Amino acid sequence: VGVLLLGLDGFRLINDTLGHAAGDQLLREVGERLQQLVHGSNTLARPGGDEFSIFVQDADLVQMEELAGQVLEALRRPFHVAGQEVYVSCSIGICFYPEDGRDNESLLRNAHVALHQAKEEGRNTYRLYRRQLNEDAGYRLALRSDLRQALDRGEFVLYLQPKVETSSGLVTSAEALLRWVHPQRGMISPVVFIPLLEETGLIEPVGEWVLEESCAIIRRLQEQGFRDFTVAANLSPRQFHQQDLAQRIGQFIGRHGLRAEEPELELEITESMLMRHEAQSMDLLRQLHEMGIRLAIDDFGTGYSSLSYLTRFPVDYLKIDRSFITQIGHSQEGETVVRAVISMARDLGLKVIAEGVETRIQLEFLRIIGCDLIQGYLFSPPVPEEELARMLERQARGERIGAGKADT
């Protein structure tokens, strides 16, 4: 018997933003599509939540991989829910009886292990169970437990990746990036612990800590003489939709003595976050803008096809996604997209940040076409606050501080 266990990617967000009735409707439509793929003595079930399972008798590996591909394809088409087109994908775990378990409990447990592996490795894909995954699952379980105490123990730290003006070569701002320094395991990759923060709901208190610590860093840099240096913090979707977000940020600004009308704080948000509750997003962004906070659209070009929101929302920067920057020097189509974004931004009075800049070829192209700021390993990786301060001190003395060690 082959067991295919699938979980919808991002279902909680749809449920939270469109309502439980819309979530129920989406689950019914997913079930109807899956039913079309199940024939004969095979069985489709919904164990609960956003998970579905398919049991296939006399299955082999080829059959199960083909079925997984059919499931992914069936869910690729849009769903019509609550008067809107909604796109979802799924992650799939596959295991077999009796090789991967001789009873229901062990089979479904191991299918869940494979499902979580698929989610960790990018989602919208499937993974086969293997014994090593159980060890990985044990590691994740231990991290989840430790993560609940990490904030209280002061194990989180912000690293800062400089942003450089292409025209002057000067570092004028930096993005704050969350790091976890585990007392026994050392530095834990954000790729590992950020999804765990989201799964456990800890993303809200930790995200709040990031905002306040970003304000504290700005203040400490100002005390060292760097008065006009901006620090950008990322907002998670759950943070963005908190009712009192602007008030909370205002408290952090006041607590750390930042300038009321120009606190040198920047917030990075994604296109999808803006569009899920357009009226609410408009009110929040106006409040933040009136507070002097700069706003940047992160991962620009990978989300909504309609760009009309750029004329309605008070944003300051567009941040071109690294997937387009990596095409510079290799793809004329990719270079055309980058040119178009910069030209459009200039016409709208917005500045452009290119992230993921790793080669001199990319840098020269961006400089020639008038990109305002660059960020990436060509100049510097994310660094501790103390190292950034030393970098700014050398810059103030007139030293050239760009690393520029990446390959061309």
Describe the structure.
The radius of gyration is 24 Å and the shape is globular. It has 15 helices and 16 strands. The strands form three sheets. An eight-stranded mixed β-barrel has the order 8-9-11-12-13-14-15-16, surrounded by four helices. A five-stranded mixed beta sheet has the order 2-3-1-6-7. The chain starts with a strand and ends in a 12-residue tail after the last helix. The longest helix has 21 residues, at 203-223. With 408 residues, it is α/β, with parallel strands linked by helices.
The share of residues in helices is 40-55%
Seen as an oligomer or otherwise, the chain set is: single chain
How far apart the termini lie comes to 52 Å
Strand order of the largest sheet: 8-9-11-12-13-14-15-16
CA gyration radius, whole angstroms: 24 Å
What about the largest sheet?
Answer: 8 strands, mixed, barrel
Low-confidence stretches: 403-408
What structural class results from the helix and strand content?
A: alpha/beta
Beta-strand percent range: 15-25%
Number of strands: 16
Q: How many DSSP H or I helices?
A: 15
Mean pLDDT across every amino acid position: 87
How would you describe the shape?
globular
